[in-house]
Amino acid sequence: VSAVASAGYSTQPSLSGATVTLSPGSFTYNSSSQKPAVTVKMGDTTLAENTHYTVSYSDDTTNAGTVTVTVTGKGDYTGSTTAQYTIGQARLTITASAQTITYGGSIAQGAEHCIASGLQGSDTLTSVTLTASTSAVMTSGTITPSAAVIMNGDTDVTANYSISYQTGVLTIQKAATSISFNNYNPGKTYDGVALANPTANELTITGGEYGNVSFTWYKGGVGEANRLSGPPADAGTYVLVASIAETENATAASVESGAITIEKRAVTITPDAGQGKTYGEEDPPLTYKVTAGSFV
Questions:
Q1: Rg of the chain (C-alpha set)
Q2: Predicted pLDDT at 10
Q3: Reported confidence tier of residue 147, pLDDT bands at 50, 70, 90
Q4: What angle do CA 35, 40, 44 make, to 5 degrees?
Q5: Rounded distance, CA 26 to CA 179, Å?
Q6: Rounded to whole angstroms, how far apart are CA atoms 11 and 8?
Q7: Other CB atoms closer than 10 Å to residue 217's CB: what's the count?
Q8: In this model, does residue 197 exceed pLDDT 60?
Q9: Cβ contact 36:24 at 8 Å
Q10: Does the structure show a pLDDT above 50 at 3?
Q11: Which residues, including other chains, have CB under 8 Å from residue 272's CB and lie 6 or more apart?
């Protein structure tokens, strides 16, 4: 023995042949450092940590991935050996919240419009993309979340999660259409010319277009019996109804004007002087002059 020692050879056993057991052999990400219990045996002998060996870990014992454990001999033991354990991704479910919008509008974006189930520690859902399945009016559309970003402080920890995305219900209501008159005052004195329907500038329209407006005139008051075929020209009192029909994506709307009056035209006729006849004679042609106003 002394000859071997004097030749410079070590008689210390090497841990390269040791059996290393890690318990547990795997973890699930929980945003904290996770290390297993380490048992080292040489044959049937269980060695003591910090007496026979020391334990070190690869840099990251928090995030999902594979961690290498290095057991290095100490005291009566030399050499080293390694073992590995895994930290698996945590399961995270992100469900889009239900939204109701009006046709032509857009769904709200942002993490606040989702429910995240399974976040670990102080991890936070900071952003997510929400996509609507349709832009048409319906009650059974869907909102699909994707591309979530999970942060812990300033660190992106998204890779630590196995994410399941669940859709939310999207309801798209018809756009509310409205129409009103805007300084439309067509009343006048009779001139033989029919009243004009309002121009686009004489209507205020929301949720519709001027080209889709229908105009219906009534004499005296609204009612089928009073309905006219078009704008009136004769003296009288009228009512105009401007309306937009309901469409697949918008509600109907109508507005009724106040009384619109075409005043009678004042004309004064004065017979010419000196006209007459003798009883029994035929009536002579009678003449007159318009002394006030005019005919059209």
A1: 47
A2: 57
A3: very high
A4: 150
A5: 67
A6: 10
A7: 21
A8: yes
A9: yes
A10: no
A11: 286, 287, 288, 289
